[in-house]
Amino acid sequence: MSTTNPPAVHEWTGPTGVKFRYVREPSGTYYHDTVPRPVINALELLRVTKERVRLFIGDSETGRCWLDEWDVTGTISRSMGPIKIPILIASSRSHGGGAILCDCIIKIIVDGREIYRHQNFQNPKFHAFHEGTYQESPWAVTTQWPEEPEPSVHARFKTQSAATRWIDFMEGRRMAK
Question: Are 55 and 88 in contact (CB under 8 A)?
């Protein structure tokens, strides 16, 4: 078995013809070449400290949050093999995780502290109310972006407390729903 050092830059072309370029950090972790330096620094520190994080994923140009609620909390680790990329481990009992869209991170929270925020970070306004239209989920949560004239229903819940917990999670005040 040969032990060769992986390349400092890894380039490849995806099945649709899109070209990707990953650059190796001194730690051995590879990041897409468009990932901002503050995000790399934060993820590298969090990988070492194993602190639980809440990631906000969105449009890296506009800063608009995509409102992802799954696979956005956990601890930072990295994949195995010669090209190690950042992954998010769901819990201390997990044996792997999904790749992180590092170039789409627009906000990082650790223990209630914001450690990174995109300069144009945008989250919509959330509002919970008892709608009653659906008996099984009478509580609706609407989102309203500044450019939208009317709010739109984004989620439904059985109880007011569930709706409130979800809003707190989506705004970063809770680490879990």
Answer: yes
At 73, list the tokens. 């909390």
Q: pLDDT tens for residues 40-96? A: 999 999 999 999 999 999 999 999 999 999 999 999 999 998 899 999 999 878 888
Owner of token pair 């992180």: 100
Question: Do residues 142 and 126 touch, judged by C-beta distance below 8 A?
Answer: yes
**Cβ atoms of residues 20 and 30 within 8 Å:** no
CA dist., res. 117 & res. 8, Å (int): 28
Range list of H helices, the chain: 37-49, 160-170
Mean pLDDT to the nearest integer, 118-146 = 93
Within 13 Å of residue 138, how many CA atoms lie on the same side as its CB?
6
* Residue 28, beta-bridge partner list: none
- Round to whole Å and give the CA distance between 4 and 82: 9
Lay out the sheet containing 30-32: strands in order across: 9-13, 19-24, 30-32
